[in-house]
Amino acid sequence: MLEARDAVKTMKAYRSPSAGLTGLNMNMNENTAGCSPRVFRKLASLTVEEISRYPHRDRDEEIVARFLGLSKDQVVLTNGVDEGIHLICEAYLREEDEAILVVPTFGMYAIYIQATGARIVTVPMHPDFSFPIDEIIAAATPRTRMIALANPNNPSGTAAAPRELLRIVEAAPDAAVLIDEAYFEFYGESVIGAIAQHDNLFVARTFSKAYGLAGLRIGILAGSANQMEMVRRVSSPYNVNAAALAVLPVALSDQQYVADYLRQVFDGRLRLQSLFAELGLQYWPSLANFVLARIGPQYRQFIDAMQQRGILVRDRNSDPGCEGCVRITLGNTEQNEKMFASVREAAAELSCHHKQSEGSAVHGAK
């Protein structure tokens, strides 16, 4: 009987947490306002010829490289950041290797690493979810062939300064160090300018967050020219679809749309954090487009109460250090106002229920 490799059989499958749910998706860190109107118009103008031919990414890679201040041979467009992670694993990891992850973090790193048979070494984030730079460096051994770090991190929203990340890159010269900058636009700091000086540094970006192109699945993987040549060898030449390639230059040219959306997210982020503080809930100051908060033992009831009000939020209770936590994505101003009101209502409802249950317990004891 045909059997999958042992590494695959022991993997935990990833399933979308929003599959089958209805409501405003403030649980997936997407751009909830959608893409630029100019992008949508470009999509509507696609020709039969553009759709019926295999897509070529060369032109768009040159445009993206110029936008990032890099050369074309330092950039590969990918089917979302997920494929970028996969390509690095395929190019550099073997069964006898080790890969370092901080936890909690983005779940797809572990999936693609495990599929190669490599061993994952986890390093816990500090209790305040700051990056354990010294501990990561100490965990590296001659068997370490990959280190993956999301900066800002998901689900915490915390970030490490570029100089701290480059300490890791320099300390592990034989490991592919991936800095996943999926939330770069909400943070503003990057290590991408250091690619030319560090042969083992890779940087990932995405158009799923600030640009609103999550459904088109397009991302960026950048690195030194000689390493990106190795990455291209394990990549399909037609990995990015024609629609994504057609709209990418338009999305990049409409920076006013991105700036307007970012302004609304930044305002919402401050207000949501203030609301959590007002409600007496622990949260972690975020540098991304979401905020993580500890609701406590009633976190599941809070999620249900939000869904009843038409808003989906993310259950992070099972992540290390995130017991009782939920993560809420910020949207545009109108969506944020609805979400703030729902958070207040859900928190008040749960507080009322909590008091009632406490009263019933005391009454029963008598």
Overview of the molecule:
- With 366 residues, the protein is an alpha/beta fold.
- It folds into two domains: 6-28 and 256-353, Aspartate Aminotransferase, domain 1 (Alpha-Beta Complex); 37-253, Aspartate Aminotransferase, domain 2.
- The chain contains 13 helices and 13 strands.
- The protein has helices spanning 6-9, 37-44, 48-52, 58-68, 80-92, 108-116, 133-139, 162-171, 225-233, 242-253, 255-278, 299-308, 333-365, and strands spanning 24-25, 75-78, 98-103, 119-124, 144-150, 176-180, 201-206, 219-223, 282-284, 290-294, 311-312, 314-315, 325-329.
- The strands form three sheets. A seven-stranded mixed β-sheet has the order 2-8-7-6-5-3-4, with helices on both faces. A four-stranded antiparallel β-sheet has the order 9-10-13-12, covered by helices on one side. It has a two-stranded parallel ribbon with strand order 1-11.
- It is globular.
- The termini are far apart.
Q: What are its keywords?
A:
366 residues; globular; four-stranded antiparallel β-sheet; 16% strand; Aspartate Aminotransferase, domain 2; 2 domains; alpha/beta
